[in-house]
Amino acid sequence: MLFTITHRMGDLLLFSIVLGLITGVYYAMMALGLNLVFGVMKIANLAHGDFIMLSAYTAFWLYFFFGVSPIFSLIIVIPVFFVLGIVVYFAMIRQLIKKEESEMTSIVAFFGLSILIESSASLAFGNSYRTLPVNFLKFTHIPFLGFSLSTVILLMSVISIIVIVFLFYWLNKTKYGLNVRALMANEESARAYGLNIGMIYAITIGIGIAITAIAGVFSPFLLGAIYPSEGGIITIIAFSIIIIGALGNPAATVIGGLVYGLVINITNIYAPGWSYAVTFVILVVIILVRPNGLVGGRLREI
Amino acid sequence: MLRVEGLVCGYGDLDIIKGISFDLNDNGIKVILSLNGGGKTTLLKTLSGLLPTKRGKIILDGTDITNAPPRVRVKKGILFIPEWGVFPTLTIRENLIIAASVGNRSSANEALGALSYFPELKNRFADKAGSLSGGQRKMLMLAMAVASGARTLLLDEPSSGLSPSYVEKVLEAIKVMRNENLTFLIAEQNPSFSEISDELMILELGTIISKGKYEEIRKNDEIRKKFFSL
C-alpha cells in the first residue's frame, strides 16, 4: 500500500514536471513580447496584460458571434494586434522616447493606458466572466503517466514553440532582426550608422504585441476566465517571468517561463493555494541574489 | 569637402560649441585636439546629425546637410564613429554587415573584405565583438568604417582606453586608410594624433583657439604646456 502511494506520488511529481515544462513554454511566449519591447526600447509596458485580455475577448467574440475556433481566430488576431502595436508606437511611444527619463515616463503612460483599456473593456463587454470551450479539438484529454493531459494545453505548447522559434529565427537570421539586435547592443552606434530607428521600433512593438495577442487567445485555458481587470495580475506574472530570466534578454524569457511553469505546477501538488506566493518568494530571492536574472550579466543580449 | 560655418550646438539651452567654422578637405586628416569637456564629441555628433544644429551651416560637397538626419548623411558618405562604436553582442561578421548595409554594400563577402586592413581580426569573424580587447575593438570600428563605404570619417577619441602600442597600431591603420581616399576628422586629447594631421585645431570650451600646422601650433608655449604635455 505504502509502495503504491509512493509510486503514485512519484508519477504525480513527474507529471507535474512535464506539465510545468509544457505550460512553461506558453508562459515564456506570454512574456516574450514584453521583454522584446523592453530590450529594444527600454519601455516597461504595464498594459501588457491588458493586450492579452483584449486578445482573449477578440477570440471570445469571434467564437460567440461567428463560431470561429480559437485556432482560426489567430488569422485575424495576429495582423490586427500587429497593427495595434504600430498604432501604439506612433500614438504614444514615439513621443515618450524623445523625453528625458523616458523609462520613468513610459511607466506612468503605460499605467494610464492600462487603466484606459481596462475601463473601456468593462464598459464595452461588461464585467461577467467569459471563457472559451475546450472542445474545439477532437480529443480534449489524453492519458499520460496515469493522469489526464489536456490536448488544448499541448496545442498551446506547440504553438508557443513555433512562435518562439519564429521570433529567434527572425532576430538571428534576417536582416531586420540583425538591425534589432544592433539597436539593442548599442543605440548610439545604431543611430550613427543611420539605421532607421523609428521603423525598427514600430515593427518590433508590432511583433511584440502580436505575440502577446497569440498568448491572449489561449489565455482562458491556462490563466483563467476572461474579464476586464485580469490584465493587472497577468502583467505582474509576465514581469516576474522576464525578471527571473533576465530583463531585456528575450532568450532568457524562455528560461524564466520554464522556471515559472515548473514552480507553479510543482507547488500545486505540495502546497496548493500557495503557488503565487512561492513564485513571488522565488522572484524576490532572485532579485536579491542575481539582480540581472538567472541568465544575468548579459543584459540586453540575445 | 565638408564646410562648417558658424556652428552653434549643445544640449537644451546650453551651448557647447559656440560658433566655429572650418573646412575639411578631401583626403585630408584634420585633428581636433581638446581636453575633456572641450566640446569635441558634441561637435562630431552635430556634424553627424545625432544632435541638432542651433545656428550655422554644415555643407557637404556643396549640399547643405545642416538639417539632414543621420541616415541621409551616412548615405552621402559622412560617418560618425563613437568612442566605443561597435555592437558588442554581435559577431565581428555581423558588425561588418551592419556597417556595409548602410552604404548599400550588403554582401557579406564585401563587408568581410574590410578585414584585409586588420589581419589580427581576420580569423575571428565569428567571435562576439564584446570578446575583443579595447584595441581590437578600435580596429573593428575602423574596419566597419571601411565596410560602410563612407568617404568622410568622424572619429571620436580613437585612442581612448588603449595602451601606447595599440595607439601606434591605430595611427598606422589611419595612415594606410588615408591612402584609400578617405577623409578624417579626428577628435582627440592624445597629442600623438596631431603628428599625422594635415591641419590641427585646438578646441577649448567650444571655441577654436588655434588652428594650423602641427609644427607651428606646437611653438606656442601656453598651448604646448596645456595640450601636448600628456
Would you write up a description of this structure?
The complex is a heterodimer of chains A (302) and B (230). Chain A has 302 residues and is an all-alpha fold. Chain A has a domain at 39-229. Chain A contains 11 helices and 2 strands; from the N terminus they run H-H-H-H-E-E-H-H-H-H-H-H-H. Chain A has a two-stranded antiparallel sheet. In chain A, a hairpin with a 2-residue loop joins strand 1 and strand 2. In chain A, helix 1 runs antiparallel to helix 8. Residues 298-302 of chain A have low confidence and may be disordered. By secondary structure, chain B is α/β, with parallel strands linked by helices. Chain B has a single domain (26-49, 70-227), classed as P-loop containing nucleotide triphosphate hydrolases (Rossmann fold), CATH 3.40.50. Helices cover 31% and strands 27% of the residues of chain B. Chain B has 8 helices and 10 strands. Chain B has a 6-stranded mixed sheet, with helices on both faces. In chain B, strands 2-1-4-5 form a 4-stranded antiparallel sheet, with helices on one face. In chain B, a hairpin with a 2-residue loop joins strand 1 (2-11) and strand 2. The longest helix of chain B is centred in the middle third of the chain and has 15 residues, at 134-148. The two termini of chain B are 32 Å apart. In chain B, 43% of the residues are buried. Chains A and B meet through helix 6 and helix 7 of A and helix 2, strand 6 and helix 3 of B.
